[in-house]
Amino acid sequence: MENLEADFKNLTKKAIQLASLIKKQDEILVVTHIDADGITSGCIALESLKRCNIDADIIFLKQIDDGALQQISDKFVWFTDLGSGYVDLIEKYKIECVITDHHVPQKPFENQLNPHDFGYDGSINLSGSTTTYLVARNLGLVDGNLGLNYDLSAISIVGAVGDLQDSKHGRLMGLNRFVLNEAVKNGFIKVIKDLRFFGKQTRPVYKMLEYTFNPYLPGISGNEKGAMEFLESLGISLKNGEWRRWIDLSDGERRMVISEIVKVCIEARMPVSLIKKLVGESYIISYEEEGTELRDAMEYSTLLNATARYAKKYGEESCYIGLRVCQGDRDAYKKARSLLQNHRRNLSDGIRYVDEIGIVELRNIQYFHARDEIMDTIVGIVAGMCFYKANLKKPIIAFANNEDGIKVSARATQWLVEKGVHLAKALTIAAEKVGGKGGGHSIAAGATIPEGSEEKFLKYLDELIGKQLKRF
Ligand code: C5P
Ligand code: C5P
Ligand code: ZN
What we know:
This protein is an alpha/beta fold and 472 residues long.
């Protein structure tokens, strides 16, 4: 039985231990992951180091491998949002380091803070960013009291939302709530109960509805005219000079839309569990301007994904754009917004491409191969988005070409995880069998495998997932 209070105390003890090791260093390199959780984790580490006068620099990695580690083997490294799954390699290069991560650990490691080591699933309980925050808050002592780094709790919540840690229950859960409470208590985050759709701050309401595919709203999702007519039928004016956004609607209008959407979902025979999740918590960043992406953790994290996941295409600079957004740089915010347009286009092109080639079903899994048509760094996001039109009872496996061979991204549903599916475990084994390497979480995982090994990999994976589901 979980005892959150006691376990949080134990995590804090470990965090204090790591903070004191960090404080002994003069110079630290922060090495982080190229997604929203990674950028926010990196930013939290970097800021907290600078605030205690430690020379700090940061680099972004798509994944840990020999090449990357060789180049940093002479540094003291703070790995954030990556590392736990690759401890053997870190040890091979004898890298002095601390790790704050939430991926499934490969094996025990002394200088590591990871929720799994305390019996908690890192895809729900703590993200890379909230794990990193737990160490950062202990670097922020003033006269022996915590407080200097409380502000960093807000972007740690953005990272947790970026990793969809609130998707299972429509709210952040477990250990994340200690961080959330700290952010709320100190005035950095406001929690509101609201529709859990994307784009409430920035999109015209009809666009917000048209672009909602999770859940799929018949007659509205992907249907501009349908979305407009739905709102007009409720007597809601679409424009008031400008297109009206969700935040521009009155409380009464919002309630009316929500209850009509619930009716649409009931008519579509959607499971009650999904309907219940239409409304949940939204995390508002109090100090950011209303009507911008930065105001809402869900939109903020997508903005960050639009920067970091394009490092290969636009150079490492795109990661720094996301980082500078978190540091409050408004010029970087403008650049990030233009990258966001591009990200949205790539996602919808990706989904269209999957429509064209189709998803192939095997006994226990389903897959598509995007080759060079979808970037390896976003193919996982596309795979997750494809669930609305795929079989919800089989994990989706996506392949894309990359410079190291074939990138694999896998996504499951909560239902599958409850039935026993653990993608990280299955991908790690199947990848190793074909000479690759993988890891991640139970619900979302990834791997890199040699070109040409896809068929063999699929065969192993299909069997492993079958065993997890006890279908064989
Ligand atoms: O590497 P990292 O842990 O940051 O990535 C987690 C990935 O898992 C994200 O891409 C996130 O979107 C995905 N995820 C998911 N469904 C969940 C939880 C996480 O697709 N319920
Ligand atoms: O890249 P993608 O979003 O599909 O990654 C899903 C999850 O799998 C992330 O948590 C990522 O860190 C992990 N992953 C991994 N090893 C890889 C690729 C992805 O642990 N080679
Ligand atoms: Zn993460």
